[in-house]
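Quick one: structure tokens for this chain, please?
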Amino acid sequence: MTDKKLKIEFAPGCFDHFDGTQEELDEIMKMLEKMASTGEISDELEPIEWDELDEETQEALEKIFNEENEPRRLQ
């Protein structure tokens, strides 16, 4: 059995709602890529149930999901 290393690809617009500095975003991306390459990211995964999320989180995720399904408009 071979161990496949995960590779993270950041889709255009995936951080459109990120509210932080470019340095913070760069650090998060670097951390995620490191965790994927070592396999640590899989160890940290934890399933969640939609009904266990608070209403504010559900609404925020629904908004993001709906925006992702609309064509992007470049300015």
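The helical segments are 22-38, 40-44, 55-68.
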